[in-house]
Amino acid sequence: MWVKKDLLGLDDLTKEEIEFILATAESFKEVSSRSIKKVPALRGKTVVNLFYEPSTRTRVSFEVAAKRLSADVINISTETSSVRKGETLIDTGRNIQALNTDIIVIRHNCSGAALMLARHVDICVVNAGDGWHEHPTQALLDIFTLKEKFGKIDGLKVSIVGDIAHSRVARSNIWGLTKLGAKVTVCAPEMLIPVGIEQMNVRVTNDINDALKDADAVNVLRMQFERDAGGAFPKQLEYFKNFGITKERLKNAKKDIMIMHPGPLNRGVEIASDVADGDNSVILEQVTNGIAVRMAVLFLVAQARDKNSN
Amino acid sequence: MWVKKDLLGLDDLTKEEIEFILATAESFKEVSSRSIKKVPALRGKTVVNLFYEPSTRTRVSFEVAAKRLSADVINISTETSSVRKGETLIDTGRNIQALNTDIIVIRHNCSGAALMLARHVDICVVNAGDGWHEHPTQALLDIFTLKEKFGKIDGLKVSIVGDIAHSRVARSNIWGLTKLGAKVTVCAPEMLIPVGIEQMNVRVTNDINDALKDADAVNVLRMQFERDAGGAFPKQLEYFKNFGITKERLKNAKKDIMIMHPGPLNRGVEIASDVADGDNSVILEQVTNGIAVRMAVLFLVAQARDKNSN
Amino acid sequence: MWVKKDLLGLDDLTKEEIEFILATAESFKEVSSRSIKKVPALRGKTVVNLFYEPSTRTRVSFEVAAKRLSADVINISTETSSVRKGETLIDTGRNIQALNTDIIVIRHNCSGAALMLARHVDICVVNAGDGWHEHPTQALLDIFTLKEKFGKIDGLKVSIVGDIAHSRVARSNIWGLTKLGAKVTVCAPEMLIPVGIEQMNVRVTNDINDALKDADAVNVLRMQFERDAGGAFPKQLEYFKNFGITKERLKNAKKDIMIMHPGPLNRGVEIASDVADGDNSVILEQVTNGIAVRMAVLFLVAQARDKNSN
């Protein structure tokens, strides 16, 4: 059962709550394969995509999910928003709430933004990525995809490779996967491993071959070179040489190792093209599952709020 | 009864027309508190938001209002529009009309833009702010909020504080309020009072305490420092010291003085945070009422046009 | 009958296919004159407008058309898209497909982009303009408008005036019109006539009077001075003097010569204002017909894909 009006992160959730979202997503997945891909679950409700960072992929996925639930969708991006006029996030949130809207999907560059917003509004808040903190729906769709293939998460060996230090995707995955009993390894160059990460119950390695060996799945993070301010990043070719996922490297991995990536791909940087497009890749299935997971999340938080207010 | 295909400003309207919009808005307000916030009033009609200035608040309010009426909504902002290619406003309007759309909601930086557009198209035009001229739906929602609290407008004492010279919100409020019998005071530093404003049937003062004393409501305008080109504006702290609405200043005002603000707030500039969030503030109710008022306006102009064309 | 999942250009189509689209558009045209302008043809389907170049006119026309068919519409423009993050067009297309969407309407600055995309996705692709190559829906609406007025295309004399060299509108019109039996003349300054254009079965002239004489219709292209990088363009006034369509020039043309323009207009550059607004102009009817043609195209490709996948 789900009783929360918000989805802020997987750190907050119990194993049971995560499993309940996954089960709900499973039942919604079928909707997108119908000829008429629409259910009336959120008809007459309004979902606001409030994006302080550009992210077409996540915005579009939430927008499609909301529309398949028959919600009205309003897109706000900071490029044209009142934020430019100096309004605080809390004021913006309260104003959106005052429009009698139902759910805010927020992407923000500051860790904790979704939580702060959720504390100041009565409507639902769904975290679509807050700084380096969490990106819960991405992790949920990753876990959903793993579960779809392997039947269960408990005991799975999952390696996450890439810039762990600045990755909300890594953090949400670690919280979710470990709660469900997976064994998580993180792998990156030394400078991209955050201090104290071992306390999150993960194994750390700087050796890509070590990360791939025995892994049931590898989640390859995007190297966001455009965000590197301090020169901490290796050069692209150097990164590919030392950490890129290639057919050659996969020879020593399990034959059916599952290859995941949150997108967008840097082909030839963190992953070779033939691996991204190969038989082990589930990258596009992740995208498809993102719709089901987000439909489930939007539906569950809205339903919980309706019950609470009755 | 309402027979006009356009809403251009409150200067054009009779007392009866304004009251008819307010009464219609009252009946629409209930829709937004339903679980399924939707009525089929504008189903199969197309509303185009044509914004030559960025204004997320107003655009989103109109978009939500139109969608609650089941209209299709198309957003056009000049950042990506043909306007960049040098098309005239009239040509843009005629093209939008040629798409068999029904209503253009226009925000423009030139006074008179909505009127000019309305003269050249047969479809409905709703002014969402034209230069320093009018912002009729903002004034209507302000008046709606006043009426909701005080039961009537006739005889109310309303003070408008801030940059009167460059404020379409002030102008529309003055026209609307005085028609309905309110006594309006405007208060600002000398340089922000337009010449000849007394002819609009308002009292003028440069003394904030004078403006607050005896007032039933004070409408605090946003200081748009980002628009100050000529250095006519006082410094922010200086403005707050001399005109900012603070708890201290309100001690000499009526106990239940209503505090209004069109948003977005400059906390600590034109208004203190504890006043904006205090018991007398109706700032968020104004936002809520904006939906009802805009639903009423969209519905009435569309209905009038349908009747005229029959 | 229509069996293609994509509309890439008129060069690919047979005479019969073009006529089938036109006939379908005719039946859809009536929808936009109803009071409730909506049919459920694409209910539960998702149309994605993927625009790599800004084009409000075309985007809005497709968006209105899709919504009149009851489709959900997602707008993606490169200003905020993952394209900035270096994703390839094919990856973007596959990701959009993985969302279980149905149709991508693509505008791209590279010739062949729509074709490349169509080869890599199973969902429908509609070309909304690719580089200097094709803009098939614009040509279809031009031809639809011609047919509506003249009853048939066979034997019509159509002159296209303007920057033929860089015009996808010209190219698509030439392919479509000649297939349907029209006699096409192109007219431009020497530098704006592409080498080898005669092989497209058109007559070439640099003399505007020659182009107007005997023509049943003239399609006046927009001079896109903003795109002139190499200084190949004449000055605006010089162009108007030598090629502008004026009342004076039309005196020697057929009395009922039809004046077309794809918009947006440069009044006083390629066309005089009184001609653009005169009795012979069908410029706004072209815009109206664009909705009918785009509804037909969206409907036909979606239907063909549904049939193929059954």
How is the secondary structure organized here?
The structure is a homotrimer of 310-residue chains.
Chain A: H1 15-29, E1 46-51, H2 56-68, E2 72-77, H3 89-98, E3 103-108, H4 113-120, E4 124-130, H5 136-150, E5 157-161, H6 168-179, E6 183-187, E7 203-205, H7 208-212, E8 217-220, H8 236-243, H9 247-250, E9 258-260, H10 273-276, H11 283-309
Parallel strand pairs in A: 1-2, 1-3, 3-4, 5-6, 5-8, 6-7, 8-9
Quote the average pLDDT of chain A. 94
Rounded to an integer in angstroms, the radius of gyration calculated over CA atoms of chain A is 19 Å
CATH class of the largest domain in chain A: Alpha Beta
- The main sheet of chain A orders its strands as 7-6-5-8-9
- CATH architecture label of the largest domain in chain A: 3-Layer(aba) Sandwich
Strand content of chain A: 5-15%
Q: Please work out how many helical segments of chain A DSSP would assign.
A: 11
